[in-house]
């Protein structure tokens, strides 16, 4: 084994207090970046969760719709027009909207109603832990997510309350259907949803288009767009992208998360740079000797970079462990932090980049050393 | 006559800038040949260490030429000078300059590691050299666990492990007691018997003159005498050393 690793590790460990300080700095920086980017991923997923789980080849949405939660409405007659377009097998209406849920213990809380007929492949709840889709056929039946039990004041199937003075009975419970806006989702059949959100029966939010097996989705989309006015026909990917862009960038939420992540990375880089620089300064005499005995700049650079990489590997390993604990701790909450293999790899590369960048000042300092000082000291 | 291993021709060296500039060397010419232990003596501030730095390719002379094994160093880039140092010159410093966090074996091996030599060969060679300087039993000791004399022997081992053409030593006995100082000079004299290797020792210590083949005296940046060591009488050694 080359002595580069030994020199680097001994340089780092010689001043243990400083080494611990460096590692703590890296860990804090990476945990901060992990949380910010994990939240971003979580938001990204929840923003499009409804679109991702809907059964649709195309979405017909009111013109100018910015996101899934947009309150604009379509006319039910658009369904008939859509059905008349060649290649359209079905156009399933859904209704969405904010309304007020009467908390059994007192007061109200906003909820987001999603209405779709249970006998058609529209937009239905998933991840049932109690009850099922058929349970929603019962009078006043709704499905809620267990994440929001506290908010809604109900904890079990059979619990009842009111929405807009209309009876509601919890018939099914899901797990992990969270809302980006943190407003609980309430699933119910179409007509009941229209009533809960006080929408006229001839008004709907979206049409989920199923294209015939042999039809070309692109062509059907163009035909629909030509046939219907005041609407936009979007593929699920287009609608997801639009929703994502609106919530994460249009509102500034994503930018805030990225800014937090960037701040974490900068703080981490500065901490590592400062400690690497001072560690190098403490070992200038040894680096001067290395230069005097003829070591190349590359050799010296490798020693310093190896110190930086050791910092990054140790710091990242600890940060990843803490990150996993945070992910686990938030997994059941309304705001889970998501960690994916890609994010983990990205964070490792970021840590390495951060530490290597911070080595630049130390390298510049060492390369300025006059080897002749070895004779003078 | 054999070709010199290191040759300095009409070297001048200015240090510092502006009003503080001093001419540390003024037209120094010197050739170091294999099989010789040469002492460089003179009072403090006479230019000994500056000359050592120039001969060791650490300082580029303001004027004149330095040749190492026939290679002219004029215009060489720092990387090329570093390569000349690691391939052809071994250095011994007054304060040993060992790495405190490395064992004796690793300190010696370091000179080969910077050359990119395979670690197994480097370890084997470092062990051989530690045996030569009588420290094979201390290969796992850290510098702090060694006496001054032992540390300087490790430094000598580091200087010779790469089989350099020249060894430049700056006051190698300066920090040692008389007994250890003489032991170190014995080792250096033994090394200098190799006809392919030149040893130059900067020293103030007149007691080391008997180990030398040649003694150069420098004062005010100029060589004022260069003679065989045998020509210096025991009585005149102290005066010679102190200038």
Order of helices and strands of chain A: HHEEHEEEEHEEEHEEHEHHHHHH
Protein structure class of chain A: alpha+beta
**What is the string of SSEs of chain B from the N terminus onward?**
EEEHEEHEHHHEHEEEH
User: Which overall shape of chain B is indicated by the principal axes computed on the Cα atoms?
Assistant: globular
Tell me which CATH architecture of chain B applies here: 3-Layer(aba) Sandwich
The first-level CATH class name of chain B? Alpha Beta
Rounded to the nearest angstrom, the radius of gyration of chain A is: 29 Å
Q: Helix coverage percent of residues of chain B?
A: 25-40%
Short description:
The complex is a heterodimer of chains A (377) and B (243). Chain A is 53% helix and 18% strand.
Explain the overall architecture.
The complex is a heterodimer of chains A (377) and B (243). Chain A is of the alpha+beta class. Chain A folds into two domains: 3-46 and 252-376, no CATH class; 58-234, no CATH class. Chain A is built from twelve helices and twelve strands. Chain A has a six-stranded mixed β-barrel. In chain A, strands 2-10 form a two-stranded antiparallel ribbon. The two termini of chain A are 30 Å apart. Chain B has 243 residues and is an alpha/beta fold. Chain B has seven helices and ten strands. Chain B starts with 5 loop residues before the first strand and ends with a helix. In chain B, 50% of the residues are buried. The chains are: A alpha+beta (377), B alpha/beta (243).
């Amino acid at each position: 084994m080359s002595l580069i690793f030994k020199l680097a590790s001994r340089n780092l460990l010689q001043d243990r207090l400083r080494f611990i300080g460096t590692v703590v700095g890296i860990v804090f920086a990476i945990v901060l970046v992990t949380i910010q980017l994990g939240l971003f991923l979580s938001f990204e997923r929840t923003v499009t969760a409804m679109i991702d789980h809907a059964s649709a080849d195309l979405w017909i949405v009111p013109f100018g719709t910015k996101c899934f939660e947009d309150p604009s409405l379509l006319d039910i007659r658009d369904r008939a027009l859509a059905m008349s377009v060649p290649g359209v097998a079905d156009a399933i209406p859904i209704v969405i909207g904010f309304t007020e849920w009467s908390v059994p213990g007192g007061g109200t809380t906003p909820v987001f109603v999603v209405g779709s007929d249970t006998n058609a492949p529209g937009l239905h709840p998933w991840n049932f832990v109690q009850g099922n889709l058929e349970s929603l056929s019962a009078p006043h039946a709704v499905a809620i997510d267990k994440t929001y039990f506290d908010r809604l004041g109900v904890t079990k199937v059979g619990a009842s309350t009111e929405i807009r003075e209309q009876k509601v009975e919890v018939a099914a419970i899901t797990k992990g259907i969270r809302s980006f806006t943190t407003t609980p989702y309430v699933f119910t059949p179409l007509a009941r949803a229209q009533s809960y959100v006080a929408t006229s029966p001839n008004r709907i939010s979206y049409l989920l288009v199923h294209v015939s097996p042999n039809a070309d989705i692109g062509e059907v989309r163009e035909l629909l767009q030509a046939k219907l006015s005041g609407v936009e026909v979007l593929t699920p990917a287009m609608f997801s992208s639009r929703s994502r862009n609106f919530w994460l960038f249009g509102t500034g939420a994503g930018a805030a998360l990225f800014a937090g992540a960037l701040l974490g990375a900068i703080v981490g880089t500065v901490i590592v740079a400062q400690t690497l620089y001072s560690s190098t300064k403490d070992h200038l005499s040894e680096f001067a000797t290395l230069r005097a005995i003829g070591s190349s700049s590359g050799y010296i650079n490798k020693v310093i970079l190896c110190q930086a990489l050791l910092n990054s590997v140790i710091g990242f390993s600890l940060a990843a462990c803490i990150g996993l604990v945070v992910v686990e701790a938030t997994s059941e909450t309304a705001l889970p932090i998501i960690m994916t293999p890609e994010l983990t790899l990205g964070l490792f590369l970021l840590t390495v980049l951060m530490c290597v960048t911070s080595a630049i000042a130390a390298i510049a300092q060492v390369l300025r050393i006059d080897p002749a000082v070895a004779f003078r000291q | 006559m054999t070709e010199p291993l290191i040759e300095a021709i009409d070297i001048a060296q200015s240090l510092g800038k502006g009003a503080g500039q001093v001419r540390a060397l003024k037209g120094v010419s010197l050739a170091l040949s294999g099989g010789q232990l040469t002492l460089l003596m003179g009072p403090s501030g006479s230019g000994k260490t500056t000359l050592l730095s120039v001969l060791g390719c650490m300082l580029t002379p303001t004027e004149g030429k330095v040749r190492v094994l026939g290679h002219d160093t004029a215009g060489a880039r720092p990387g090329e000078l570093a390569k000349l140092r690691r391939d052809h010159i071994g250095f011994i410093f007054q304060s040993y300059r060992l790495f405190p966090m490395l064992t004796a074996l690793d300190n010696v091996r370091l000179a080969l590691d910077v050359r990119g030599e395979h670690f197994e060969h480097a370890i084997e060679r470092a062990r051989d050299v530690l045996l030569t300087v009588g420290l094979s039993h201390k290969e796992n000791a850290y510098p702090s666990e060694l006496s001054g004399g032992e540390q300087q022997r490790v430094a000598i081992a580091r200087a010779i492990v790469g089989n350099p053409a020249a060894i430049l030593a700056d006051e190698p006995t300066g920090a040692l007691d008389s007994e250890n100082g003489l032991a170190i000079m014995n080792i250096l004299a033994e090394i200098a018997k190799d006809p392919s290797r030149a040893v130059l020792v900067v020293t103030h210590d007149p007691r080391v003159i008997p180990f030398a083949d040649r003694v150069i005296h420098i004062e005010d940046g100029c060589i004022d005498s260069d003679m065989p060591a045998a020509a210096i009488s025991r009585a005149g050694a102290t005066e010679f050393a102190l200038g």
